Amino acid sequence: MELTKVMEPLAEGGKVKTQASYKKLGKRLLRSKTGMIGLVIVAVVVLMAIFAPLLAQHDPAKTDVINRLLPPFWMEGGNTDFLLGTDNLGRDILSRIIFGSRISLLIGISAVLLAGAIGMALGLIAGYYGKVWDFIIMRTVDSLLAIPNILFMLIILAVLGPSLITLILVLGGTSWVVYARMVRSETLSIKERDYVRSAKAIGAKDFRIIIKYILPNVLSSFIVIATLNVATTIILEASLSFLGLGIQPPDVSWGLMLSDGREYIATSWWVAAFPGIAITVTVLGVIFLGDWLRDVLDPKIKD
Q: Which of 8, 13, 54, 279 has its CA 20 to 30 A from that of 181?
């Protein structure tokens, strides 16, 4: 009974502290114009991807040669049935952009999660255990960094063939080195702190020390890098699809739309312009959000 009386105020105090932290976070977001812009852009793109079947007026894969290369509705020859015009096969560009957001986000987030998981695990092992583990992992990282990322991806995709799963595996499997280096660096510093030494002294197991004391302290930097790398991954996917080694028809992605429209830039600019704008705006939104997260999570930056 006495223990309950003692714990109740502590629990209430913890709730108040958490609520205060959320309020502080909200205030910092409202004060950051770029953070708000980034959050709005990312939220719109995510909602667009989720509700794509409801938002799109047309089937993104349906061809209509009678209405091919129609301009946007505000230009001469355009109509409101195809708000942003049509491509060389008569497919509605707006509907394809909406459905293309699904592929771009899926690849961007999945590849970052895969790369982050690999990099986090290897970085923790290299930083905590050191010695031979550190040598093997970091020499592997150095070897991968010596090869241009895009060249490595092109070689693998040319051998395995392009597909959604292959693209995610290639993008994730070649991007983990950034996380591994960052996590290793922070782990080397954190493992020398007093609370980690104390945990070792009382006989705590390595796995418990890593999960309970080291991992939470590297998560803030990890989240910031992961967020920014979503933008990089979206651009890489678009680049590979543009080169014909990414998403293949009948699936649709923004990079594939750019590739389809490059031959019509001089005569039908909208075929390539609108997918390019979608990529640019989305990447800027993710970067703005990542910058705001860095400002919030970096302990060196104070209000």
A: 279
Q: Is the overall model pTM greater than 0.90, yes or no?
A: no
Instruction: Supply φ then ψ for residue 92, to 5 degrees.
Output: -70, 120
Q: Assess contact for 225 and 176: CB atoms under 8 A.
A: no
Distance CA 150, CA 163 (A): 17
233-290: pLDDT as tens digits: 888 888 888 888 888 888 888 888 888 888 888 888 999 999 999 999 999 999 888 8
Say what the pLDDT of residue 193 is.
86
Q: Give the amino acid at 221.
A: S
> Would you state the pLDDT for residue 243?
81
| Position 16 in a domain | no
With a CB cutoff of 8 Å and minimum separation 6, the contacts of 180 are: 118, 119, 120, 122, 123, 126, 137, 141
Which pLDDT score is estimated for 111? 92
- Asked if 248 and 224 count as a contact pair (C-beta separation under 8 A), the reply is no
Query: Rounded to the nearest 10 degrees, how much is the dihedral formed by the CA atoms of 195, 197, 203, 204?
Result: 50
What pLDDT does 278 receive?
A: 92
Determine the straight-line distance between the first and last CA of the chain, rounded to whole angstroms. Answer: 42
Domain around 249:
43-297
- Element of type H or E holding 209: helix 206-209
Q: Is residue 265 part of a domain?
A: yes
- Coil, helix or strand at residue 43: helix
Task: Determine, yes or no, domain membership for 58.
Answer: yes
Rounded to whole angstroms, the Cα distance separating 163 from 181 reads: 29
Distance separating alpha carbons of residues 133 and 40, to the nearest angstrom: 43
Contact 272, 258 (CB under 8 A): yes
Cα–Cα distance list, 256 to 103, 105, 250, 290 (Å): 11, 14, 10, 26
Secondary structure (H, E, C), 48-112: HHHCHHHHCCCCCCCCCHHHCCCCCCCCCCCCCCCCCCECCCCCEHHHHHHHHHHHHHHHHHHHH
